[in-house]
Amino acid sequence: MTLTALAVPVLVAIVPRTAHADEPVAPTAAAPAASAPAPALVQLDADDIRATIERRVGTQSASGVPLLETGFFSVGQWQHACVAPCALALDTRYAYRVAGDGLVPTDSFSLPRTGEKVRVDARMGSSTGRVAGALVTGGGLLAIAAGTVALVATPILHSEDVGSEGFRTGVLAGGIGAVSVGVIAVGVGAFLWLTNGSTAHTQVASR
Known about the structure:
24% strand; 3 helices; alpha+beta; Immunoglobulin-like; rod-shaped; single chain; three-stranded antiparallel beta sheet; 2 domains
């Protein structure tokens, strides 16, 4: 009886203890975290004093419906970084663009992850000029369409003897005038649209 009583605590002491799901497990050595890339010293030069470097901090979807997510209606969220001319260290893990009040934003661009000095040359376009170009182009296309309808209708009016000769001549002249004005408007609108785009070029600056 005495030997049995002494053996029980000995057996309990040598049996290893198994951790359950609700019991903490001794922590293991964590893998070393990857070091962040070195920031790039960015110098912004732009032809407009309103130009600003902006950092992309997120994306919002206009639809909000998972099955309709295509990426075409996603809107980026941008955060102000600095106003040209400026030079500052920027995190190379983000995407950037150059924008500003009344200016057309450039396409987004990334920075080299070498920690070197980077120069950003931006050529900015006017938002007002680009909107005006779109409106003038749209008006020109409508004028061309209306003039084309008048030109097509003129021989039909003649064949059906609709209206007077003066009326039919007026329709023909109006069609020619509308097409001519429309072509000029499309040309002017396209010029305004194309010349008011914004571009940004990055290059590693010489030391």
